């Protein structure tokens, strides 16, 4: 509920602002240690990314309540935003976007980690689990860039707004596609913030969508094997429907104004 979200936000904001906060039956404050604030910034940013990777990966709708809190905290405490991006880019290089190349002297295991895979006892995680985690993080990012905490002072611009989403999309389309990964993440990204980008960029946005369908989609198709068709077909259907209806629907789970009265 909106009221619960406000409580969570206030608690985090109070902690970062140096006030005393109840946590786990104890009273804590960042004034208790000279490095406490840096530590809390770091752990909080890491926690937001983990929520994308776990929570949002399993429940897509969770992207919006988590993102609106992250966006509001980022606005008041910019350091959290910098660290959020650092954790995000390390765990999901595709959020830069960047496809790390295999360098000489890098072990296979190390390279798999650079690509974002979890490697335990020299065993790489399953592809579908990997894609699910990457999707969760991209969806959280796509939600953050379009959301603002509704109770802020709204004087300045969004600390990391839709222009970053436009840049991400343009950079993705300038890169050679990767089988499975590219189709999955473009779909996730556009499903979450396509509606907001459409409203902001209008004609330019539809030119971008046409470019994806006419030029970029065939390039993804060309490198996709028969076993990887699922994500590609889902993306194709989404593109066709949006272009046909000249509309990108509001994402499922988006926070309506009624939410804040709950």
Give helix and strand order, one letter per element, not per position. Answer: HEEHHHHEEHHHH
Q: Report Rg.
A: 20 Å
Distance between the termini: 5 Å
Q: Within the largest sheet, what's the order of strands?
A: 1-2
Beta-strand content bin: under 5%
CATH superfamily: GLE1-like
Unreliable runs, pLDDT <50, ≥5 residues? none
Could you describe the 3D structure shown?
By secondary structure, the protein is mainly alpha-helical. It has a single domain, classed as GLE1-like (Serine Threonine Protein Phosphatase 5, Tetratricopeptide repeat), CATH 1.25.40.510. The chain contains 9 helices and 4 strands, in the order H-E-E-H-H-H-H-E-E-H-H-H-H. The chain has a two-stranded antiparallel sheet. A two-stranded antiparallel ribbon has the order 3-4. Helix 6 crosses helix 8 and helix 8 crosses helix 9. The radius of gyration is 20 Å and the shape is globular. The termini are close together.
Ordered list of secondary-structure elements with their pairings:
Elements: H1 2-16, E1 21-23, E2 26-28, H2 36-58, H3 63-76, H4 78-91, H5 108-114, E3 119-120, E4 123-124, H6 127-144, H7 162-173, H8 181-222, H9 229-245
GO molecular function: inositol hexakisphosphate binding; phospholipid binding; translation initiation factor binding
InterPro entries: GLE1 (IPR012476), GLE1-like_sf (IPR038506)
Protein name: mRNA export factor GLE1
